[in-house]
Design a protein that fits this description.
By secondary structure, the chain is α+β, with helices and mostly antiparallel strands. It has helices at 29-57, 66-86; strands spanning 89-97, 101-109, 120-126, 135-137, 139-143, 146-152, 156-166, 169-180. The protein has a domain at 87-180: Macroglobulin (MG2) domain (Immunoglobulin-like), CATH 2.60.40.1930. Helix content is 28%, strand content 35%. The strands form 2 sheets. It has a 4-stranded antiparallel sheet, with no helix packed on it. A 4-stranded antiparallel sheet has the order 4-3-7-8. Strand 5 (139-143) and strand 6 form a beta hairpin. The mean pLDDT is 85.
C-alpha cells in the first residue's frame, strides 16, 4: 500500500488540544515574583486592617488586675452571704424618658416590709460590652427607703448596679440586666 492513498506523512494536523486554543503564556521569573509579592501584600493588608479594627473597638480588659480580683473573691463571697442573711427587699424600676434619659426609682425595705432609713444609694448603668460607655447616676433619698435619680442613658442593654451603704460600709449590692428602649 502506498502512502499516497491516505495522504502524505509529512503534513501535520493540529492536535485536538491545540485546536481553538490560545497560545500558552510562558511563566517567567518576574511573573512568579509579582504573584508572590501580591499574595503577601494581600495577607499583610488584611492583617493590618484586622489589627486596626481590633484595637479601635476594644477599650481594655474586663478587670484591671486578675490577681487582685482573685484576692478579693473570698471577701465578696462573705459579703454576699451576709447580704442574703439580711433578707432585704430591693426593688428598682427604670423608666425611659424622652430625649434619651432614664429615671430610676429604688425602694428598699427590711424582711418585714418596713422601709429602711439611713442608707446611701449609688447606681451605675454599665454597658456589658464596653466599659467606656458606663454611666453613673446621681441618686438621692426622697423618703426613708425610697431613692430617685435620672441620667442620660441611650437605648440598649445595660447592667444596673445598685449599691446601698451605711456609714461608708457597703450593706447591699445587686447587678441586673435591664433593657432600655
Amino acid at each position: 500500500m502506498s502512502s499516497d492513498l491516505f495522504g502524505s506523512d509529512d503534513a501535520e494536523l493540529p492536535s485536538p488540544r491545540q485546536a481553538g486554543k490560545k497560545p500558552e503564556r510562558e511563566l517567567t521569573g518576574w511573573m512568579v515574583f509579582s504573584i508572590i509579592v501580591s499574595f503577601f501584600a494581600v495577607i499583610i493588608g488584611v492583617n493590618a486592617f484586622m489589627a486596626h479594627e481590633a484595637l479601635s473597638t476594644f477599650r481594655g480588659v474586663d478587670t484591671d488586675s486578675a490577681y487582685r480580683a482573685g484576692q478579693i473573691f473570698e471577701h465578696e463571697v462573705a459579703m454576699a452571704k451576709a447580704q442574703d442573711a439580711q433578707h432585704w427587699q430591693v426593688e428598682a424600676k427604670v423608666t425611659p424618658a424622652p430625649g434619651g434619659s432614664a429615671a430610676l426609682d429604688i425602694a428598699v425595705s427590711d424582711a418585714a416590709g418596713a422601709p429602711l432609713a439611713g442608707l446611701t444609694a449609688t447606681a451605675v448603668f454599665a454597658r456589658p460590652t464596653d466599659r467606656g460607655l458606663d454611666r453613673s447616676m446621681a441618686v438621692s433619698e426622697d423618703a426613708p427607703g425610697h431613692f430617685h435619680g435620672s441620667a442620660d442613658i441611650s437605648a440598649g442593654q445595660w447592667d444596673l448596679i445598685i449599691e446601698l451603704s451605711r456609714q461608708e460600709q457597703r450593706m447591699f449590692r445587686s447587678k441586673n440586666r435591664v433593657v432600655i428602649r
